[in-house]
């Protein structure tokens, strides 16, 4: 986030992150949220996904987490 203006580079953007509960997906989700994006987090691990989303909200970010199998096209369409 730009500390001078209080506005992140990604403010007003929505970003979907797959594999967001662990590893690099989690890191991307956290960084995008820090930069002001509304993040849509997707993963099969619901408990870890809830933990990531709670951390993002605690840090002032916003978004939603969904348990979804990205191999299932019908499930992706509801995002």
Strand order of the largest sheet: 1-2-3
Q: What is the subunit arrangement here?
A: single chain
Report the span from N to C terminus: 26 Å
Shape category: globular
Q: How helical, in percent, are the residues? A: 25-40%
Give the strand tally: 3
| Tally of individual helices | 3
What summary fits the major beta sheet?
A: 3 strands, parallel
Structural class: alpha/beta
User: What's the gyration radius in Å?
Assistant: 12 Å
**Helix and strand string, N-terminal first?**
EHEHEH
Kindly estimate the percentage of residues that lie in beta strands according to DSSP.
15-25%
Averaged pLDDT, please?
91
Low-pLDDT regions: 1-5
Give a verbal description of the structure.
A 3-stranded parallel β-sheet has the order 1-2-3, covered by helices on one side. Helix content is 38%, strand content 22%. It has helices at 23-34, 46-58, 73-77, and strands spanning 14-18, 38-43, 62-67. It is globular, with a radius of gyration of 12 Å. With 79 residues, the protein is of the alpha/beta class. Helix 2 (46-58) links the parallel strand 2 and strand 3 (62-67).
Question: Could you provide a short overview of the structure?
Answer:
The chain is of the alpha/beta class. The protein has 3 helices and 3 strands.
């Amino acid at each position: 986030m730009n500390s001078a203006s209080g506005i992140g580079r990604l403010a007003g953007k929505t970003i979907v992150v797959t594999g967001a509960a662990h590893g690099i997906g989690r890191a991307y989700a956290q960084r995008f949220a820090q930069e002001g994006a509304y993040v849509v987090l997707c993963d099969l691990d619901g408990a870890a996904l809830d933990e990531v989303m709670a951390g993002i909200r605690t840090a002032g970010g916003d978004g939603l987490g969904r348990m979804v199998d990205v191999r299932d096209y019908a499930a992706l369409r509801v995002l």
